[in-house]
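B., you asked whether I could sanity-check this one before it goes into the benchmark set. Here's the sequence:
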Amino acid sequence: MNRLLKHAGTVVISTFMMASMLSHAASLPDFTELVEKASPAVVNISTEQTVTTKTANEGGQQLGPNSEELNEFFKHFFGQQPFGQQSPPQQGQRNSLGSGFIVSHDGYVLTNNHVIDGADVIHVRLNDRREYLAKLVGTDPRTDLALLKIDADDLPIVKMGDSDKLKPGQWVLAIGSPFGFDYTVTAGIVSATGRNLPSDNYVPFIQTDVAINPGNSGGPLFNLDGEVVGINSQIYTRSGGFMGVSFAIPSKVAMSVVDQLKSDGKVSRAWLGVLIQDVNNELAESFGLDRPNGALVSRVLPDSPAEKAGLKSGDIILKFNGESIAHSGELPYIVGQLKAGDKVKANVYRDGKEQTISVTLDARPTDPKMMAQSQQDQNRLGMIVGEVPADMAKKFEIDGGVVIEQVLGGTAARNGLQQGDVITMLNGKRIAGVADFTGIAKDIPSGRSVPMRVIRQGYPMFIPFKIIE
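And here's what the prediction gave me:
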């Protein structure tokens, strides 16, 4: 009897579990219809690029006093190029693979810039195996987007959606060619929106857990309505493969770029001319803010729209053009969506009060000397520095120095420096400001430690600072 009851109980539990599983499966979305409708507009992109490679014995190195005899020996018996003589550079072929999608019936195709960067020939293959040579219409490296054109008509197109309506937890689906496998479908959810990555200040990325791998780049990210809400662009990985974190360019950003590339072949952006940093708890307290918020101006560039408008180092920009700024990384995107000549309002927190400043934006300089020098310094030191805000200097009794606005990696990271650190002395020389720091840092030899005085949250200390290049 007991055995019978146990058996009956097992049947009941199994039935309950089966019903639960069926109910759970029924609640999951079915992507079949979406894939059937959308996949014809998704394309495979392959490129060809001619590269010059060096030969093994290139460089004209001599082997020693008997090298001529050795050269003749090897040349006679093995037919090899004599040692110590240069061989002509060899030309080779480099190929890349990615994805894209058709945005107009007359053959405009959108993909990532890094998929076609440097390509001599671009091939676009459709779902039905038709293949075309593509013409590059234009690129925008800052958003990692490229627009192509193929000579065809009546092509299937994707339906563009509104990326601003995306919310974390919503289902999304990607179609692309990971590792060369055509029209592979993967699905997941939106993990976050508005992600700012250090290398991409102009893109508020959509973060998902959709499986994105090499070859997926440039492919579309769909919502459940079959609309493209993003362009798959980057993955976070330590192994080279998918690790559950992938990033897509929002469709709103992409279509703004497409419109400019179609009409002008390039993308123009407005320029404000400030260096900014995040406001952490300590800075918020020192400035008198009730919570960390906004973009702290650490430096105003000379002859910039910011300087002409009267913005100052130490200002905290809380709103720009009517849009609230919670983190400093949001400001470059907002400015980048505007055009030269636009007149906007900046809500600024200064001296314990909020005020409104009118700013007329200029076109972003293509290659200003100051930005070039700044980029060079960042690459060598691995950090961005700015003037020490007045309130911060007063609170910690700091005279001169520079504050680290961002640690980019490399030298700064290896030496243990952190955002918010104030550098007051380097290699035995006191630092008055950014220009002074740049000049001193430029003369530091590589591979040798020099003393650096750092103030971290009010506590001074010396650290050994070494540049490894």
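One thing to flag: The first helix runs from residue 2 to 27. Otherwise nothing jumped out at me.
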